[in-house]
């Protein structure tokens, strides 16, 4: 069988790096792009030891021509669109760039596929943020109710993808991913922020950790498992959208408590709640229903919150020890 | 009360040197950076200081030149006395691959900042520095180049910067904004981006010194550049904004050196003498002692359209600003090589030094 070719847009992020590793292990020829140009090193690929196994291109999805030129030559079997501004908090500060990189970016990819008329399959990274508050676990048919510029842009990208599948028969789909963590999360994400601070405090840094609302509930999974779900979504003949989640939710307070417990501390002695970190509009409760993925993709999240925290903390302590 | 400055692109080489200079002069310095999925504030990390309760003198903000409202909000919040627009997609080669983004960030991005000043009615308060570039001269119309030499841009990067240049002049003339262009010739330092040829050379020389790399591959060895030290150039930027009126200035050393000379000099600092043999793409740099191959040519590094001899005439800056590039070429090369030799002692080994 001929070697498959995949292009990962946004390969420098957490999911991009894990997905690259996953696809390489399945024998794919892996191409990637990052908004940082191809001459810069991608530290997350370095950390996974695969920097030289991935061919990097200078593509920005909001630059139509850069995308078109590369796709015309590569004609990949699969594209994974993981690119775009990824921080909900930052999207209130840079709403226009957020929309351009997520919504226009996805539209540019779809237009390229339409114009080039190539049988390339597209996985588009959706987001649980599109659901807004979910008192009950959100499934694929749950209506969207986005509560941030980030979520609104992701909702637009979702619908654009669904439209191109239905209007033009393109093999494209969106995975609506709930939170998924790993040591490759950038330090401004709350989970990394908590884990890093707990690790430093356990070594005597004496600092205080400032956090926003602790009463929010999230459905946290393990990123390396979620990239497998992305891949599975492109292996069938019929394209469809899936919720990818653990199905369990925990409060941020629980996350903090378990993280500090792991290093033998009581979080109440070290954490301050800072109202300035509250978002203009926060989601109180976010949990997904992953049954469709389990039924049709044979995918299930194995690691729950305790296992995720344990993994994060052990990597954090190892890295700090070097 | 101290002055307030806003530096876009503060995480780059010039941003870091300029922030240091302004902090030393007592400014409150605000810098912007774009989002990124990996850590990239290494150049300004040392500027953050804990100041019990007091507002720190250096603050970093997220903003993006492609996002108008992020810029307007920021300018409104900090009411800067001076804005230095150093943010850009600054890689010439990359601009051939992402021309649309380059135009958006480097061209329209400049317009967005000027519009923010205008919209917020800060024309009488906020002075504006635009980082223009010797790349504007491209296929040069005369040598050396002055403020009066016509432009002939030869890359999407240079064309985008050309728009940034003229829109800055236009807003100065149309709305009375104190706005200036610094037409800067190449300026380097130990924190130059690793993709620029000088840093690529000094990193490779250091890697060879530490036995991590065998040879260095380069493009056009005969390309000549007017190379100064970034530390000198940020002083020139600041001086432009202290003048009674905005104007445009060339900042340059006034002398050029070929890439080949940079390479030869760099190797001399690790005790290697280069002997050049062959010509064209077959040219090689050998270790004069034992004939080891240290430098070869890779045509992939040639540009689609190469620029000619860039040599700046800094006479106007000398006369009006009292500015001069003071760091000699030899000192620049030495500082860069020694810094990289030191850096690579402790830097984790990468999987390769290919780029």
Automatic annotation (TrEMBL), chain A:
Q: What is its EC number?
A: 4.2.1.47
NAD(P)-binding domain residues: 7-311
Q: What does this protein do?
A: Catalyzes the conversion of GDP-D-mannose to GDP-4-dehydro-6-deoxy-D-mannose.
Q: Which organism is it from?
A: Nitrospirillum amazonense
**GO process terms (BP):** 'de novo' GDP-L-fucose biosynthetic process
- Residues bound to NADP(+): 213
Q: Which UniProt keywords apply?
A: Lyase, NADP, Nodulation
Q: What class of enzyme is it?
A: lyase
Q: What is this protein called?
A: GDP-mannose 4,6-dehydratase
* Pfam families per the UniProt record, alphabetical: GDP_Man_Dehyd (PF16363)
Q: What does it catalyze?
A: GDP-alpha-D-mannose = GDP-4-dehydro-alpha-D-rhamnose + H2O
Q: Which family does it belong to?
A: Belongs to the NAD(P)-dependent epimerase/dehydratase family. GDP-mannose 4,6-dehydratase subfamily.
Cofactor(s) needed: NADP(+)
From TrEMBL, chain B:
Q: Which cofactor does it need?
A: NADP(+)
Q: Name one Pfam family in it.
A: GDP_Man_Dehyd
GO-annotated molecular function: GDP-mannose 4,6-dehydratase activity; NADP+ binding
Protein's UniProt name? GDP-mannose 4,6-dehydratase
* PANTHER family membership: GDP-MANNOSE 4,6 DEHYDRATASE, GDP-MANNOSE 4,6-DEHYDRATASE
Which keywords does the record carry?
Answer: Lyase, NADP, Nodulation
Per UniProt, residues of the NAD(P)-binding domain are 6-336
By sequence similarity, the record places it as follows:
Belongs to the NAD(P)-dependent epimerase/dehydratase family. GDP-mannose 4,6-dehydratase subfamily.
EC number(s) on record? 4.2.1.47
Q: Which gene encodes it?
A: gmd
Give the signal peptide range. Answer: none
Q: What does this protein do?
A: Catalyzes the conversion of GDP-D-mannose to GDP-4-dehydro-6-deoxy-D-mannose.
One of this protein's GO BP terms?
A: 'de novo' GDP-L-fucose biosynthetic process
Under the heading InterPro entries, the entry gives:
GDP_Man_deHydtase (IPR006368), NAD(P)-bd_dom (IPR016040), NAD(P)-bd_dom_sf (IPR036291)
Q: Which Gene3D superfamilies match?
A: NAD(P)-binding Rossmann-like Domain (3.40.50.720), UDP-galactose 4-epimerase, domain 1 (3.90.25.10)
Catalytically driven reaction(s): GDP-alpha-D-mannose = GDP-4-dehydro-alpha-D-rhamnose + H2O
Mind telling me which CDD domains this protein's record contains? GDP_MD_SDR_e
Is the NADP keyword given for this protein? yes
The keyword Manganese belongs to this UniProt entry's keyword annotation: no
């Amino acid at each position: 069988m001929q070697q498959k070719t995949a292009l990962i847009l946004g390969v420098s992020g957490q999911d991009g790096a894990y997905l690259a590793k996953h696809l390489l292990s399945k024998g794919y020829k892996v191409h990637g792009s990052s908004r940082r140009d191809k001459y810069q090193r991608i530290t997350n690929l370095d950390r996974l030891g695969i920097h030289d196994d991935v061919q990097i291109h200078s593509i920005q999805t909001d630059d139509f021509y850069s995308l078109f030129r590369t796709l015309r030559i590569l004609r990949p079997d699969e594209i994974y669109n993981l690119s775009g501004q990824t921080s909900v908090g930052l999207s209130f500060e840079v709403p226009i760039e957020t929309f351009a990189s997520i919504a226009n970016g996805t539209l540019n990819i779809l237009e390229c596929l339409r114009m080039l008329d190539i049988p390339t399959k597209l996985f588009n990274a959706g987001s649980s943020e599109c659901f807004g508050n979910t008192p009950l676990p959100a499934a694929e048919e749950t209506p969207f109710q986005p509560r941030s510029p980030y979520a609104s842009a992701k909702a637009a990208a979702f619908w654009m993808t669904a439209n191109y599948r239905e209007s033009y028969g393109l093999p494209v789909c969106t995975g609506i991913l709930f939170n998924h963590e790993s040591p490759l999360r950038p330090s401004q994400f709350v989970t990394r922020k908590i884990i890093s601070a707990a690790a430093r405090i356990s070594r005597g840094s004496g600092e205080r950790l400032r956090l926003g609302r602790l009463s929010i509930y999230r459905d946290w999974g393990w990123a390396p498992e979620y990239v497998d779900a992305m891949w599975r979504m492109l292996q069938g003949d019929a394209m469809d959208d899936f919720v990818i989640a653990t199905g369990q939710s925990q409060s941020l307070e629980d996350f903090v408590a378990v993280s500090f417990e792991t290093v033998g501390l009581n979080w109440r002695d070290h954490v301050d709640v800072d109202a300035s970190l509250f978002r203009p509009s926060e989601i109180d409760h976010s949990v997904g229903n992953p049954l469709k993925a389990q039924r049709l993709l044979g995918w299930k999240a194995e690691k729950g919150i305790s296992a995720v925290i344990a993994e994060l903390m052990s990597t954090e302590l190892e890295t700090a020890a070097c | 009360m101290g002055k307030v400055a806003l530096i876009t692109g503060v995480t780059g080489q010039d941003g870091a040197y300029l922030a240091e200079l302004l902090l030393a002069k007592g400014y409150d310095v605000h810098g912007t950076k774009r989002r990124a999925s990996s850590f990239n504030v290494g150049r300004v990390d040392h500027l953050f200081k804990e100041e019990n309760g007091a507002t720190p003198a250096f603050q970093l903000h997220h903003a993006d030149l492609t996002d108008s409202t992020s810029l307007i909000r920021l300018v409104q919040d900090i009411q800067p006395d001076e804005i230095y627009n150093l943010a850009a997609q600054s890689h010439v080669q990359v601009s051939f691959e992402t021309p649309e983004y380059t135009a958006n960030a480097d061209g329209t991005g400049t317009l967005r900042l000027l519009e923010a000043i205008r919209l917020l009615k800060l024309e009488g308060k906020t002075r504006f520095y635009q980082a223009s570039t010797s790349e504007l001269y491209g296929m040069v119309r005369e040598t050396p180049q002055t403020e009066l030499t016509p432009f002939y841009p030869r890359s999407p990067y240079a064309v985008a910067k050309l728009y940034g240049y003229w829109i800055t002049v236009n807003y100065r003339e149309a709305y009375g904004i104190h706005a200036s262009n610094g037409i800067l010739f190449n300026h380097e330092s130990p924190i130059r981006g690793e993709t620029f040829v000088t840093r690529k050379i000094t990193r490779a020389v250091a890697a060879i010194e530490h036995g991590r790399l065998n040879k260095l591959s380069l493009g056009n060895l005969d390309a000549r550049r007017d190379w100064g030290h970034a530390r000198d150039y940020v002083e020139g930027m600041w001086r432009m904004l202290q003048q009674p009126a905005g104007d445009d200035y060339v900042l340059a050393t006034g002398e050029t050196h070929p890439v080949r000379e940079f390479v030869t000099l760099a190797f001399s600092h690790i005790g290697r003498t280069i002997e050049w043999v062959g010509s064209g793409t077959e040219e090689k740099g050998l270790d004069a002692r034992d004939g080891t191959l240290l430098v070869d040519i890779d045509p992939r590094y040639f540009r689609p359209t190469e620029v000619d001899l860039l040599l700046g005439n800094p006479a106007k800056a000398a006369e009006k600003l009292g500015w001069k590039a003071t760091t000699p070429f030899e000192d620049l090369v030495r500082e860069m090589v020694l810094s990289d030799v030191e850096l690579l002692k402790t830097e984790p080994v990468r999987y390769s030094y290919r780029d």
